[in-house]
Amino acid sequence: MTPVTERIRQSLVHLHMARALETLDQTLGRLERGDISAIEAIDELLAEELSLREGRRIGVALRTARLMPIKTLESFDFSFQPSLERNRIMAIAQLEFIGRAEVVHFLGPPGTGKSHLATAIGVAAVKAGRSVYRCTLAELIEALARAEREGRLAEKIRFYARAALLIVDEIGYLPITSGGANLFFQLVNARYEKGSMILTSNRGFAEWGDVFGDPVVATALLDRLLHHAIVVQIEGASYRLRQHADLVPEHTRAHANLTPPPLPKRRGRPPRRETDDQGPG
Ligand code: ADP
Ligand code: MG
């Protein structure tokens, strides 16, 4: 080992460039054999280190954002939900709504992929370097209520207002007390026109009065949440039940197909087949 390579090694140790240190011998070997030029060797070491760090950053960010287990748009079978326009979802996944502090609503019956899509867009946002946080409405309200009891509500609202994208999943499954609705309203107000959100719900907006146990707060919530909004209505069958449709009671199946109003635009058109068109584009 020459004094120069020893010095490089020491420098990499001090710079905490573990991956570059690990690949140093291999890269130098390729350089000595003439497989790569000196400039390519530098590039290779830096690229190795960077990709390790980027992978680590994404892993940490996905966990802190609570986006595990991760979902992706590539693994979403659009042919199973013909009411859903793939291009529209892919446009949302370009993430411009985050910069515009808009609210994306995914509405539809259980199992139609609302959480999957919300998580997949969250994962794309993390990869793009945006800060993301995901929770259910019940978790969010519980955390705010606890913070209020402990006299640190303002701090908690600042926490939930901080992420560039806040995903609030499962609106409508559990009834919310009017105190809870009030706390959620304070958070929505704090984020209004400042930070983007993705909301998922199995209930139409007309039912939010029931969901939040208070028609006045529900109206005020919707006023803000629909001002700069993208509404994606998913119709159709549950992906969870796709192999067991024959075992599900008739009234459950009927309900699953009944909840969202039909999209007038698509009526009469045959479902599109997109089986050989899975990648992002
Ligand atoms: P929802 O939130 O609407 O109740 P989920 O997004 O949780 O439904 O979907 C239920 C399960 O089915 C998840 O594991 C999800 O990944 C999967 N899933 C739903 N729709 C699709 C789809 N079109 N393609 C692939 N997986 C899907
Ligand atoms: Mg869900």
From TrEMBL:
The keyword Coiled coil applies. GO terms for biological process: DNA replication. GO terms for molecular function: ATP binding. It comes from the Bacteria. Residues 251-281 are annotated as: Disordered. Residues 130-157 form a coiled coil. Residues 271-281 have a biased composition (Basic and acidic residues). It holds the Pfam family IstB_IS21. Residues 100-235 form the AAA+ ATPase domain. Signal peptide: none annotated. Keywords: ATP-binding, Coiled coil, Nucleotide-binding. PANTHER family: ATP-BINDING PROTEIN RV3427C IN INSERTION SEQUENCE-RELATED (PTHR30050:SF4), CHROMOSOMAL REPLICATION INITIATOR PROTEIN DNAA (PTHR30050). Belongs to the IS21/IS1162 putative ATP-binding protein family. This is ATP-binding protein.
